[in-house]
């Protein structure tokens, strides 16, 4: 009986010359498409208090999975990417408009101007006030 079992296994393995492909995964979205959608949502809502959980809920997925995908596909964490978007927008607002720093900070999603100024200085190497163009009657 042992010999028959070995022969049967050998016959089965030799008959598998044309294996069937595995069934397609159940409704999976490509990682890049998910991240593109996430980046689009961040670009639209960066000024609001937005967190990883909010973004994951909008994309109907787990925050852990989204965080993993985000780091893998963009080489940024979600929070680092959000901060980069906010600070870049703040830099252009400060250069283009003569708005007070606290208004710019709130316009890009920072509740506390001092925290905004610290992050801005860490990112760009100079204070936000250095971006302000002097206007007549206004000092830096």
Report on the architecture of this protein.
By secondary structure, the chain is mostly helical. Helix 2 (31-45) crosses helix 4 (63-74). The protein contains seven helices and no strands. It has helices spanning 2-15, 31-45, 52-59, 63-74, 78-96, 101-107, 113-124.
Question: How would you summarize this macromolecular structure in one to three sentences?
Answer:
This protein is mostly helical and 140 residues long.
User: Which structural class do you get from the secondary structure elements?
Assistant: mainly alpha
For the biggest sheet, the summary is: none
What is the radius of gyration? 27 Å
- Total number of helices: 7
Shape: rod-shaped
- Note the gap between the termini: 94 Å
Strand proportion, as a percent range, falls in under 5%
Helix content: 55-70%
Uncertain residue ranges = none
Mean pLDDT: 83
Helix and strand run: HHHHHHH
Number of strands: 0
List keywords for this structure.
62% helix; 140 residues; single chain; mainly alpha
Furnish the topology, listing elements before pairings.
Blueprint: H1 2-15, H2 31-45, H3 52-59, H4 63-74, H5 78-96, H6 101-107, H7 113-124
Helix pairs in contact: 2-4, 6-7
């Amino acid at each position: 009986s042992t010999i028959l079992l070995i022969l049967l296994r050998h016959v089965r393995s030799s008959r598998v010359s044309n294996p069937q492909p595995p069934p397609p995964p159940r409704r999976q979205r490509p990682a890049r498409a998910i991240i593109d959608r996430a980046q689009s949502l961040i670009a639209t809502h960066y000024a609001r208090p937005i967190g990883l959980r909010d973004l994951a809920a909008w994309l109907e997925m787990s925050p852990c999975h989204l965080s993993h995908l985000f780091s893998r596909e963009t080489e940024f964490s979600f929070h680092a990417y959000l901060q980069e978007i906010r600070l870049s927008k703040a830099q252009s607002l400060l250069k283009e408009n003569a708005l007070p720093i606290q208004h710019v900070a709130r316009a890009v999603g920072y509740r506390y101007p001092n925290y905004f100024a610290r992050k801005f200085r860490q990112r760009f190497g100079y204070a936000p006030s250095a971006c302000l163009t002097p206007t007549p009657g206004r000092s830096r």
